């Protein structure tokens, strides 16, 4: 891999500042100092702090989506698809805990921003791709009947709730130690009887 771009440097600096200072307390000057970028470069790439927040959020969501897409290329069963959704979520959070914290706390802010429509479109495409890859298994009756808008919550909900607590330091058990458990719980919750 080549050297990260100036944009990537700025986003990583912003994430570090947001993690240390909080999103609201972080200033453009702090991000500039941390990244070594000029104010002109910051404004050229992003325009303002809200766009940095949105870009960081979207890049995190896209990172998870890329991990999931790579995993879907290797699975060939209904069970494998469900377990992959959980495994990729856990793996991405473990590799990016500060980013995961940022995403968990920033969704509403990004949805309400000028880039909210871009986030909704990104999510629509991401969920559409998952639906497309899982459709053959759904049509074959591998999953129990439930409203489609409940399906993802049933699969990801338990691990997502635990992850919130783990990221906040409110669990004794490490997230990595329950990866297999949550994968099995998800499969047991949605497989056809």
Please write out the topology:
Elements: H1 6-21, H2 28-35, H3 39-45, H4 49-72, H5 78-95, H6 97-112, H7 116-139, H8 148-167, H9 179-190
What does this structure look like?
The protein is mainly alpha-helical and 193 residues long. It has nine helices and no strands. It has helices spanning 6-21, 28-35, 39-45, 49-72, 78-95, 97-112, 116-139, 148-167, 179-190. Helix 1 packs across helix 6 (97-112). The termini are far apart.
Shape: elongated
Mean pLDDT: 93
Q: Structural class from helices and strands?
A: mainly alpha
* Main pleated-sheet profile: none
Order of helices and strands: HHHHHHHHH
Distance between the termini: 46 Å
The portion of residues assigned to helices is over 70%
pLDDT < 50 stretches: none
**Which radius of gyration do the C-alpha atoms yield?**
18 Å
Q: Which strand-content bin applies to the residues? A: under 5%
Tally of DSSP helical segments: 9
Number of strands: 0
